[in-house]
Amino acid sequence: MSGMDKAKNKLEELAGMVKEAVGKVTGDTSTENEGKRDQAKSNLKDAGEKVKDAFKKK
Question: What is the pLDDT of residues 4-21, one digit of tens each?
């Protein structure tokens, strides 16, 4: 996994955490759920990159 992809995924995850927290504080479940989705999407991308790396090493 390239360092740039890893950094992008981490930023997306952090942005999702912020959205989720803002949604909780403001009582906006839509924003809260969007933050959770962003985090999940970031985690899936990260997992996909790790799988690609595993196959490159073989």
Answer: 888 898 999 999 999 999
